[in-house]
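Why do we care about 3D structure at all? Because function follows from shape, and shape follows, mostly, from sequence. That is the central idea of this module. The next example makes it concrete: a single protein chain, its amino acid sequence, and then its structure expressed as tokens.
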Amino acid sequence: MTIHTGEKPHACDQCGKSFSLKSYLAVHMRFHTGEKPYACDQCDQTFHVSSSLKKHLAVHTKEKPHTCSLCGKSFSLLQSLKSHQKLHNAVRDYMCFECGKTFISANELKLHQRIHTGEKPYKCSHCDMKFSRSSNMKSHERIHTGEKPYKCSHCDMKFSRSSNMKSHERIHTGEKPYKCSHCDMKFSRSSNMKSHERIHTGEKPYKCSHCGKRFSLSFSLKSHERIHTGEKPYKCSHCDMKFSRSSNMKSHERIHTGKKPYKCSHCDMRFSRSSNLKRHELIHSREKLHTCDQCSRSFTSITHLKLHMKIHAVKKPDHRDPCGQSFAPLPSLFTHNNHSLKSRTATSGENSDPE
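And the structure:
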């Protein structure tokens, strides 16, 4: 009768959530205890509930019996198809009263609202980390277990997340389903498309909490904030040096390994850094991209331009010869004086009368 009355007499003593049936509470408690009684007979993955196991088995069978009549996309679950079809119909009946954002299902709205409330009901069974979504918790737990249940259908690579597997498979198929709304560029990942679109919009949603500087990419913000915090999470596997960026650590480790993966397309020279390769290739092209804004002289590298600019930065009247000519670097004055002395000596010799 509690189903009809809405009464929920069975409460979880861990998080306070209530249920109408004792069996529902028993299933819920597995998320706290970590109990996963339903095991896949194809791989080592286990699940809290039987329905999750059934959904998972579709990964192995690759069966997708539910097809969208509008775009032809197929799904392993009928519910997934129904949710997808709402994207075509643009039906968003569920609105968040905190920010006004709308959603196609009550469950999506509920998950979204946890952003505002900060609720994280799903705790990792291996550490103290908590999550707002059970799917995120499950993906995280695979870091501890090392489990990679999703295998590429084209090669032997395995992944802990199905989304990572799908993105990887596009390397084999060449599929780029995400198109920029501002130009014709296409992408294999939606995240890459969104990052690219900010080039057009100029949007920089990620703000530094220390200085207010804004960034278009979240990882650019994280790298920048380490300037303020001094954090260096990437340690060289050969020595004790630490780095704020993984790319800098990888470049440094090549000092130890001697690895030079970047080869010049014009000769056989190889480099440990791509920046050094680019600088070297300018020798072959003779291209001088860096131009002085004082005298229009051009250089192949920014370093050479900076050295040249120091000539303009020094005030010339500091080193003046009696003849009135001025020089920027002092050595230039010495060179001039030597030439003047030799010139005057030679002239004096020519004009003197022979004995």
